[in-house]
Amino acid sequence: MTISVTRKDTQPTPFPSETDIVSNDINIKNELSIRHRELLEEVRNLLKNYSSKPLDMVDALQKLCIHHHYEEEIGLILKSLYTKMLNNDDYKHDKSLYEVSLSFRILRQEGYYVSADVFANFKQKDGKFDQEITQDIKGLIALYEASHLSMEGEQILKEASDFSSGALKEMVPSLDQDQAMIVTNTLQHTYQRTSSTFMVKKFMKVYNGTPMWELAQLELTKVQSLHRTEVDQISRWWKGLGLAQELKLARNQPLHWYLWPMASLTDLRFSEQRVELTKPIAFIFLIDDIFDVYGTLDQLVILTQAVNRWESNCLEQLPYHLRICIQALFDVTNEISDKIYKKHGFNPIEFLKQSWINLCDAFLVEAKWFTEGYMPTAEDYLNNGMISTGVHVVIVHMFFLLGGGPNIKSASVVNENQGITSCLAKILRLWDDLGSAKDVDQDGNDGSYVTYYMKENAGCSSQKAHEHVMEMISNTWKQLNAECLYSSHFSPTFTKACLNLARMIPMMYDYDENHSLPFIEEYINSMF
């Protein structure tokens, strides 16, 4: 006798066929697409009719990472605002601390120079900031955010940062949970120095229930799906190379390599560029590991000579596992150059080759220092260490992948490893050296700016050295802010991509006491 759990008056529910599943999936996507278009227009109408405080709307769109849909409207708003600020002195006096701070930050972020003197109106006769504004939480948050757009010599913004951060820290214990969370997030992750995609889910909570929130949710779903597809492409490419099997002690982290392009090239249109940019990043880590844990000094000299000549014949003296790695580097670099030429009509192979030559030369310098027991000065270490970060390799590849090649002057500037590239490299090197943990599979034979600085300054504690390095990072950010504001060599797309790279650096190297990277783990969970 067969026991059935199906009632006599019903029929068992059949499993859906593959056709039904695909059809249902298509219907859902179509419905989401229709709703997406509706929301785009709904938010566009809100932006057009948000005449009283349009910058609040612009700020929300940027924080929710949906501003790219409204570039034309936002451009008109900022141009109008900037004209008012230039031509009407009373405009600055009639605005609140929040309004002035928000205007200053967004305009500078978008390439408009606004004098830091706009904050002089909030100072007392003794030159200190007015104590009355310590009760203005919204204004203090905006002031603190604005202060991170500072450039060298702008003392008033340094004072604004110290004043606002001090006031905000003091008021945290007396705030409710939501307010305390907003203040803490601001102090820890300012908008200028943090990846916007890392913060998007936190900002969604602020705008919950609005059309902008719903649009941001749909956008995030699209972004997550695309990122998963791209990671799959990269993983298949990496597996197909077969290098992980030959170099088992080297890092095998395609997802982490992909995080850099994912965070820097945030526009969905740049899918191909994100995938291609991950490839040189993979080789930066791979070659770094070869210099650290695989090659003897004699082998590393031969390897570096082969890269300098860019000739496969020079590889014959190397062991198989090193030979196939450098051959793969040659092949992948040539493939990327061909793709750029077909898409943009400019072959950047000489620029790409030079970036790899510079990197290997810098790695070899460090290898010789370690082998010979030589201790460089902190300055010499930093100058070489900025090149060995691989930032120049990434920036050069990104520049040409974005189509910058036909502009020979800009190509020459990016190839000189100065300006924006130099700032990024310095920030990364210093953050990396501050890291309190090493990759578990690495010997950690690289030097450290902190170590060399402490040895050059007798009696300097690790805390003092840490504070010194953080001050160096802050000063370098000021230089980077100026480079991004005044640079006429590069497109806004490229400049913002460079800024986004800088914003990722703290998360990539900010280890906790457990030798892990909590912000990166949080970022991966939110984006995948």
Automatic annotation (TrEMBL):
Gene3D superfamilies: Farnesyl Diphosphate Synthase (1.10.600.10), Terpene synthase, N-terminal domain (1.50.10.130). Keywords: Metal-binding. Residues 239-479 form the Terpene synthase metal-binding domain. It holds the Pfam family Terpene_synth_C. GO terms for biological process: terpenoid biosynthetic process. Residues 30-175 form the Terpene synthase N-terminal domain. SUPFAM superfamilies: Terpenoid cyclases/Protein prenyltransferases, Terpenoid synthases. One of its GO terms (molecular function) is magnesium ion binding. It comes from the Eukaryota. This is (3S,6E)-nerolidol synthase 2. It comes from Artemisia annua (Sweet wormwood).
